[in-house]
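Example S7 (structure tokens).
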């Protein structure tokens, strides 16, 4: 038997379109393998428009319109005879659509978390699960949202907020569940790692940043990447979700890569080293490990760091991310994988959706 799991996509930019492409390509295989068909019933995007069809939207038509016109307005004319609503705002879509899960993939604001925090609250309050790749709500309001989800008996998943589809949070929560994580060190921002890699090959900072934007790695406002805000938000997510911290983004000791010059990069190279934007999460000495109900002393920093080429993070090039978990029972466990990108982040949503279906 195949069940249908209905989705409302809040945002239809890079990640939403990547997810739609994955569902089109793999929908039959997922139904065969896992007995579930994910059906997008609603899309609400501030720029492209909003559509709701309780019986499911045509993903190929949505993708075609988004690519050709950047708007979804012509969809209704192409799908005669459907019970279609258009023009609902995001909150109405979340509250009134028949979706089982809201996929919050609107733009990230790690300063306020809005409007995504309100979207996630509305989802939980209307009995819907939420999957996010949007870092804002998790970095700023993880505990409040986790408690709200639990109170409403729904699920809250956000694998794509750190290292896109590379299963970082899942690895730590599931496969390392019996270990205490003592420290995390990682390259958590694809854009800056791409820029630093390109600069090592002689490309200018500005050209490398423009290329990262063209490839879809950079945030809508790339200062979030180069000034280290994005990596700081991810460090806070790891600290608060995996190490019981109560950090705010402003608590992170943060320096970006925007002060680094080609000469700095060349000097490191000549010395057999490489600049990397390293995020670090650790516990203050003397603080006990503990459940998420109490502050466990987790702290975080994000800093450009010169690493010797022999360091495990030094060889991580381009938009690739990496994360080393230092644990009590296994020592260091390092995960390397994509940290940004259309299909990579779309995949993060798919992984969360499959987990929701398994757990629901
Ligand atoms: N701008 C982010 C990065 C996207 O470059 O890593 C993925 O979170």
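Recovered sequence:
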């Amino acid at each position: 038997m195949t069940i249908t799991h209905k989705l409302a996509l809040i945002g239809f930019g890079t990640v939403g379109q990547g997810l739609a492409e994955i569902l089109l390509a793999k929908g039959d295989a997922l139904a065969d393998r896992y007995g579930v068909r994910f059906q997008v019933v609603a899309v609400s995007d501030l720029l492209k428009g909003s559509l709701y069809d309780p019986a499911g939207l045509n993903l190929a038509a949505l993708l075609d319109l988004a690519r050709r016109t950047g708007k979804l307005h012509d969809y209704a004319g192409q799908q005669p005879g459907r019970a279609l609503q258009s023009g609902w705002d995001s909150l109405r879509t979340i509250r009134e659509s028949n979706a089982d899960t809201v996929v919050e993939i609107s733009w990230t604001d790690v300063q306020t978390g809005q409007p995504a925090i309100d979207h996630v609250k509305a989802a939980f309050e209307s009995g819907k699960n939420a999957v996010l790749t949007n870092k804002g709500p998790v970095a700023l309001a993880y505990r409040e949202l986790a408690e709200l989800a639990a109170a409403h008996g729904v699920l809250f998943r956000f694998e794509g907020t750190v290292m896109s589809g590379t299963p970082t949070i899942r690895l730590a929560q599931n496969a390392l569940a019996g270990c205490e994580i003592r420290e995390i060190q990682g390259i958590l921002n694809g854009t800056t790692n791409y820029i630093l890699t390109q600069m090592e090959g002689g490309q200018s900072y500005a050209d490398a940043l423009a290329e990262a934007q063209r490839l879809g790695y950079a945030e809508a406002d790339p200062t979030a990447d180069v000034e280290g805000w994005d990596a700081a938000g991810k460090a806070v997510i790891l600290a608060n979700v995996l190490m019981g911290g109560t950090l705010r983004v402003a608590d992170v000791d943060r320096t970006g890569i925007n002060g680094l010059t080609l000469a700095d990069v060349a000097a490191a190279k000549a010395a057999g080293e490489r600049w990397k934007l390293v995020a670090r999460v650790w516990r203050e000495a003397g603080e006990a490990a503990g459940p998420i109900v109490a502050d466990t002393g987790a702290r975080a920093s994000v800093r450009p760091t010169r690493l010797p080429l022999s360091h495990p993070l030094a060889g991580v090039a381009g938009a690739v991310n990496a994360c080393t978990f230092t644990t009590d029972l296994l020592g260091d466990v390092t995960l390397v994988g994509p940290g940004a990108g259309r299909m990579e982040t779309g995949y993060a949503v798919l992984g969360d959706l499959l987990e929701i279906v398994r757990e629901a």
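Notes on this example. Residues 164, 189-191, 217-219, 225, 230, 339-340 surround L-homoserine (CB under 6 Å).
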